[in-house]
Amino acid sequence: MDAVITSDFVSIDGHDTLAKLFRARAQDWSDRIAMREKDYGIWRAYTWADYERFAYDCAGGFMSLGLKPGDVVSILSENNKEWAFVDMGAHAAALTINGVYPTYQEGQLRHLLNDSQTRVLIVENEEQLDKYLSVRDDVSSVLRVYVIDWKGLRGFSDPMVEPIEHLYEAGASYRKANPDAIDKAIDSGKNDDTAVLIYTSGTTGAPKGALIPDRYLLFQMSAAPDTFPITGDDDILTYLPLCHAAERLISLCMNLGHGTRINFAESSETVFENIRELSPTVLFAVPRIWEKFYSRINTLMSEATWMGKKGYEIALGVGRKRAEYLLQNRRVPPLLEAQFKIADRLVFRNLKQLLGLDRSTFLLSGAAPISSDLLRWFFALGLPVAEVYGQTETGLAAITNSDEPNPGTIGFAVPGVELKLSDQNEILMRGPSMFSGYLNNPEATQSALVDGWIHTGDVGRIDDDGAWRITDRLKDIIITAGGKNITPSQVENELKFSPYISDAVVVGDKRKYLTCLIMIDQENVENFAQTHNIPFTDYRSLCAHPEIIGLIEAEIDRANKKFSSVEQVKKFRLINVLLTAEDDEMTPTMKLKRKFVETKYESLISEMY
């Protein structure tokens, strides 16, 4: 791949827009597999020729409706092949594509459709269609709605709503009557055109629509260091929402740039099953997924025989010793390397196969801070996980180097990106992957983009070797009543390293000491309860049982030992409601909304003071 990169221009293999690059890729790779999707339990492959046909039929369908360059097409769906077809079809028709989180409710959908002035809406099924129908009277911009899965809508009739097959058919007819239309639209594209509208996940306030140009997306295709080679032989499992910037960059951009094969997970509930089944070579995951892998092995070991537990303990000890040499950039002694190979053959290989990580060559964690202890555990198993740093507004800005791993840092700025610290130690970024601003929100744009630099809102520091560390969000730093500045994410990450703690929110701003709201890991805590004959009837009763409260207290005591007295959690409470991405407390990427949680559980917090 030949990339030309300057501060304000990016091209890949001579193409300065996604649509132009796609046209070339579809011609060069027509017989290669572009993506796979499960169909009645069987992985079905789609070639680049298939991808081109469906995408261009979508483009022709949009043109047949009279859409103009820059008009917005929105997708409200879980990940699937149609998501990719519609996305690329919009690029080919010189339109702007906007992904909507499938967990969004009616009010959130109303805001996004009106703010973006969406002209065409693609929905996955009857459930998602109902969300639109409930707000349609408040949304005047939408011309047509297409449904991917018409099942359950037999007999339904509405002049604005059609199955997606009608879009393909209209597009094919339009292309036949206007054979040069799509090529002309593609040729008209420019490097700074808004290709994608990505709404921030809304941890504070209403989501803001970030305007993402082609330049930004093309740059991401060249951002992975040479130590992480990506080729057309790689398989990626796509399961995080494609409307999230990170998943778009890892899946859609790597697919277009390098020819990696996209494999769509069946659903959010089957992710781990699909990982085990597919054994992807490239896997991007948020910290919660990596924590789940760790928890699964802990659960397995708790149920293992004495011999199995002892074998794991010995193998892990060998892996940790070897990891320390590598983390210090020292040569591993030959005897220790030989011992590790035996441990890998007898223990780790089976664990990797169990997790579906036995073919992995490129593992990434991002979207939120991750525990350095967790990264060290994976490293001990021979599974180095690179930590990537970026935001919707910046794209991938930094990544750790596999040759010089350093858990707890985000590594170094990717080539072409500049990072620096402000007077408040806020990380500032500039480079080719900068967003163009927020749609309809000049005030927020002016706050984020100052003198050519993006203000990330993240507090950081630089290590002696030049590696960057994120210490916390600027707005999340706690100042206790005694005047001590505390970064809650460090404490929270240590707590989340426990297999029994799924999430944590540390509280203490302007208060005498720190307290914490805990979300338990349902699977592991239920397993603990069953193993120890602890009776419970549901999630609420599980959280209320004294032995479970004692279990979590012991985990907090363990974490507290790593911090000074003022940084230790003095009291805690369990959130006794099982939260999902559809709950107001969670973002679509499964992060607790700190301010919302503190407000909603104010009475619970007050009890601790």
Describe the structure.
This protein has 609 residues and is α/β, with parallel strands linked by helices. The protein is 40% helix and 22% strand. It contains 21 helices and 28 strands. It has a 7-stranded mixed beta sheet, with helices on both faces. A hairpin with a 4-residue loop joins strand 1 (3-5) and strand 2 (10-12). Helix 1 packs across helix 2. The radius of gyration is 25 Å and the shape is globular. The chain starts with a strand and ends with a helix. The model has no long low-confidence stretch (mean pLDDT 91).
- Taken from the alpha-carbon principal axes, the silhouette is globular
Spatial extent as radius of gyration: 25 Å
Strand order of the largest sheet: 9-8-7-5-6-10-11
The amount of beta strand, in percent, is: 15-25%
Number of strands: 28
Largest sheet: 7 strands, mixed
Q: Estimate percent helicity.
A: 25-40%
- Which regions have little confidence, pLDDT < 50, spanning 5+ residues? none
Oligomer class: single chain
Mean of the pLDDT scores? 91
Q: Which structural class is indicated by helix and strand composition?
A: alpha/beta
